[in-house]
Predict the structure.
Amino acid sequence: MYYRKTGAGTGAGAANQQAMKALVNKGTVPGLIGYEDGVPVAWVSLGPREDYAKLQRSPVMKPVDDRPVWSIVCFFVVPGARGRGLSDRMLRAAVDYARSRGARLVEAYPVDKPVRSHPDFMFFGAKSMYDHAGFREVARRRPNRPVVRRTLRPGSAAQ
């Protein structure tokens, strides 16, 4: 919920759980859940950019232009399931989902560092993951924080 809210009170806790439940109850899909053997093990948060209020004022993630775009803002994989390509699969699923909802551009804000970072600091995903999925850099406002995009064609599945 962090990027969907503005101002004070954007932290974790019961208020965020209630806000997430309210989104789902009104029909908003706030992200996708990945399962292994019926157990949730991964998450990706995505949606139309305008759903993420904090992106508008972010020095790193502010709009590149006025084109309509879907944003991917967060990944999570449970510790015991890391290292098995789940983030890659979640990214493919996110692209496919955005396309199915009419998106023609998907944007993300990955971390680009020469050395591997601790997973707790990689919730945006690594730039290399996006590179392999066909995203291209469109802006870089900080040395290790590019903005990447992928143009989607109607009806073609992610590869």
